[in-house]
Amino acid sequence: MLGRPILQKISIILVSVITSAAAYSQPTATAPTPAASPSDRAPTKPQLTLTWHLAEHVRESYSGWNSLAHIGAVGATYLLIESGVDADVQAWSARRNETLSIAASAPALIGGFFVPVAVPLYMMRSDATRNGGMAAQQAVFVSFTVTTLLKALTGRPAPDAETPRDIDKRSRHFRYGLLRGGIFHGWPSGHTMTNMALAASLSSYFNDSKRVKYYAYGWAAYVMAAATFGAQGGVHWLSDVVAGGLMGWTIGTTIGKGFARGYLQPLAAPGRWGLRLTLNAD
Asked: What is the C-alpha separation between 191 and 142, in angstroms, rounded?
C-alpha cells in the first residue's frame, strides 16, 4: 500500500528533473514552445552549393547591362593595342630593376593562384559565412572556366619580347584557333579575372561591410598591378589585365548579388498566407 505513493513521488521528481534539464539546455527567450505558430519560428538558412542557380547566374552575367562589360573588354583591348599603350607599358616595365620588380610582384603572382581557392574554402568552414564563401567559389569557378576557354581560343603570347622593336608587333599577335597558344598565357589575364571575381562576389554579398570591400578590392588591385608591371612586364599585357578585370567584376558582382538576394520560403500563420523572404546575408 505504501509502494504506490512512493512510486508517484519518484515519478514526479524524475519528470521535474527532466523538464528542468530540458529548459536549462535551451534559452527560454528564443526557443520556440510546442504551441508556437509557424510564423514565430525563425526560418532555417539554406546550405547552398556550388551549382546553386549556376546557369541563371552565367546567363545574367552576359545579358542586359552586364553584356556591356564584356563588349567593353574587347573594345578596350583593341584601343590599347592600336594606340600603342600596350607596347609602351611593357617597354617601360622591361626597364625596371629585375630584382625589385620580381620581389614586388611575387606575393601577388604566387598568391593569385591560391587566394581565390583558399578564401572561399576557409569561409565555408563556418555556418555564418558559408553561403558567402560558396558565392565566391562559384564566381571563381565561372571566371576560371571562361578565361581558360578564351585563352585556348585566342592564343595571345606573353609580352616577353627580347628587343624593343619587337614589342609593338608582339602586342598585336593573336593565334586564333584551339590551343594554338596554350591556356597559361594570353587574353584575358586569369590572375586578374579570378581574383577580381573573388573581390566582386564578396563585396556584393557582404554589401554592408566596408572592410570586406577595402581588403577584397585592394588585393585585386595588387594582383592587377603585379600582372601588368611585375617580372619586368613579362607576365601580361595591360589589355589582358583590363579585360580580365572587367569580365571578372561583372561575373563576381552578378553571382554575389544572386546569392545575397535570398530565397522564398512559404509562410503559414493563423488567418493568412504569404511568402517570407529570407536573405542569405550574414
From this structure: 13
